[in-house]
Amino acid sequence: MNSTKHIAAIKGDKSMNTHRQAVTDMASYRKSAIATGVFFLITHVTSIGAVVLYGPILDHLGYITSAGSDTQVILGVLFEIILAMANIGTAVALFPVVKKWNEGIALGYAALRTLEGCIIAVGVIPLLAVVTLRHLVGTVGTDPAILTTIGNALIAFHNWTFLVGPGLVCGVNTVLMAYLMYKSRLVPRFIPILGLIGGPLVFAMNTGKMFGLYDQFPSWMGVAVIPIFAWEVSLALWLIVKSFKQSALTSEPATAATNELVSAYS
User: Fold this and answer.
1) What is the dihedral sign for C-alpha 78, 79, 80, 84?
2) 72, pLDDT greater than 70
3) Neighbours of 219 (CB within 10 A)
4) Does the pLDDT at position 23 exceed 90?
5) Contact predicate 199/177, CB 8 Å
């Protein structure tokens, strides 16, 4: 009789501990969802802001010899550094959640997202070098024409990093995460479908740019970026407002728990 009560008490303690662990896990998932959504929104705010701020240096080939302040360009550089860190932040926040469905793909996403952030960070260096060259204009022994040529080459360097990082690499890592979200049902399936469409489109468009084919495309081909934009924004807003779907979170751990019980009594 005492042994029966003892076993019942142990089972009650295990059940209570399991419930507490489940509550703790759900709170952790909620924090991961909010962090992921915020990081994604930061990437869009900073990327759009950087493009606007880079107007003077990217749209004017004679920027080095022109007059004016460099503050706007340097602020754009700061935006892109924040963008690079936020990119990596999305991978860090998502990895503990999505690895339960496929750790290899989750790791691949984290690695590619980190690579994308690193390429973005590298891409700001040539723009800072252009700012430095601009300060050399008018000093003894400098030729403005040569400085302008070097500056234009550095700007081209930045443009190539933009094509490779937010273009090609982003297209691939988008497909990986969209696949995991589709498979896991952590969010409504229409959201990852946008990513599964947008990732290949962005990759194809930037591949065309790399081979000089983009100028031959009709102007309306720019809409190819809409699905990937919609994927990231809708994912961010859903995770911030709704979090991950609880039914998806509990189904996988439940399977794992069942397997543990089976092995324990076998």
Assistant:
1) positive
2) yes
3) 6
4) no
5) no
Quote the CA–CA distance of 43 and 147 in Å, as a whole number: 33
Tokens matching residue 243: 């979090």
| 68 Rama class: left (phi>0) / alpha (psi -120 to 50) / beta | left
* CA 154 – CA 212 distance, rounded (Å): 19
* Inter-residue contact 183 to 245 (CB < 8 Å): no
Tell me the C-alpha distance between 155 and 245, whole Å: 44
DSSP code of 215? G
Buried b / exposed e across 149-171, counting CB within 10 Å, b at 16+?
Answer: eebeebbebbebbbbbbbbbbbb
The answer to whether residue 44 scores a pLDDT higher than 60 is yes
Q: Judge residue 119's burial from the number of C-beta atoms within 10 Å of its C-beta, 0-12 exposed, 13-18 middle, 19 or more buried.
A: buried
User: Looking up tokens 């995460």, which residue turns up?
Assistant: 177
**The predicted structure's pLDDT at residue 224:** 80
Average pLDDT, the chain: 86
